Amino acid sequence: MKVLIIEDEKAASDRMQRLLKTIDTEIEVLGIIDTVEGAINWFANNPAPDLVFMDIQLLDGLSFEIFQEVDVKAPVIFATSFDNYAIQAFKVSGIDYILKPVDIEELKKSLSKFKLLRSSFNKTTQPQVDSLYDSMHVSRSQYKNRFLLKRGQSYASVAASDIYCFYIENQIVSLITSGKNLFSVDYNLDDLEQILNPEMFFRANRQCILNINSIASVHNYFNGKLKVLLNIPFNNEIIISREKASAFKKWLDS
Q: What CATH superfamily is the domain 152-253?
């Protein structure tokens, strides 16, 4: 199988290559392209690959611009840090949409989907597109807007936008509101990541999820990592890994 990777983050493209080789040693990576212009030139001057892995936010624009300039005669698996562009992705040549950092099991599922659709890729119908979209993360309209939280014998209904941080400590998931109130919640962080609006919330690491409005400052840390300070009291150190640093900065700039 011959694949093309369109990705502007070297760490992400290197990881994708490693995972692909781990899954199937016969996969051949034809090249790695980091710009819209470069991708347009490649597709205009080379035979179509079997499959394309494509980020959406590239160095010089959104990858959707590629499809406006050249005929991409290959199925595309989008691998990106945000799910804001899901519908657009499936309106072009997208057959799947996975979030970074790419997990090997998710990648295996995407490759299996490609193999199933390969024989009839050019005949993909709208119902198939709808089915693929439904199998993704929850849609924007399903993001959780409020949480009913218990403290003692009373309850409080708190807007998601007023929650500044979800974090796990001693195997208990808690949250801090903008008013500095603390509550425990009956969700794990993985579930919260799926039901919270990714435009507002970011999974910083295994221990916490941050509201974009909670961030006071971001500082360079060791080995390409980032250190985040909140505008509310929070005793735990928040470190963004080198692999997530680029996606985190794009999220802050989106």
A: LytTr DNA-binding domain (2.40.50.1020)
